[in-house]
Write a structure and sequence with these properties.
The protein is mostly helical and 191 residues long. Helix content is 71%, strand content 0%. The longest helix has 26 residues.
Length: 191
Amino acid sequence: MEHLLQLLQGCAKDDAKCQKEFYDKYLGFVLKISFRYLNTYESAAEAANDSFVKIFKNVWKFEIRDPANIERLLLGWVKRIVINTSIDYMHMELPDWKHKPLQEAAWQDSLPTDNADNKLLYKELIELIKRLSPAYRAVFNLHVIDGYAHHEIAGLLGISIGTSKSNLAKARAFLQKHLIKDDKENVLCFT
């Protein structure tokens, strides 16, 4: 905890060594968040780097209310910055993303599977989420994974609350269909 406080103070003073250590420590966390929202690793890496720039410019704004829980609070603050930056990149990547529905072929496609123990790993789940349209993926990530309410999602994405709820329902239906399909394909019959 004390080291993290010193690290944050160094970042606030534009200490390059502290910024590098902070970057190295939280790069994986930041990349995982941005990759959930963006189509390519390159876009996710750019969004992650821009997120760190924003973090370093604004680290002095981070309030340390509870020193005992500083890392948990810091990660929540960082996560919000990364989500907002990723959404900005999503808008740049696909300016009309709100109007691109999930193509019909995606509903009928099955995912290839070679997972003998029938466990869906994090990477596989992310790949399945990546198959959602950008609008469905954004709402699913914001609501299910990041815990935003529909009115917050509507404000962030510039859509109505009803559209947010509809997109979430369609994303869940797509994911459930493919998870069930994959589960059935992986079941071994012993009769």
